[in-house]
Amino acid sequence: MSFLIHDQVPVMRGEHCVETYRLSVCLGDVRFEPDLKLVLDTGFQDSLMAKDDSHRNRALLDMAADVLG
Hints:
alpha+beta; 2 helices; three-stranded antiparallel beta sheet; 52% strand; flat
């Protein structure tokens, strides 16, 4: 099984950039239809990091920032 993320389209929504991608899934020569639409809000992680929510695990957010940053 293979995955292909393609056709990036950045769109500004207010002050935030939201990117959409198409995700294609293939098994051998067979491609599954339809492609999935992925939506990435580039400001989401920053807004999570700025919040001081006690129910969120700060260590996990810090690790995510390291991986994604």
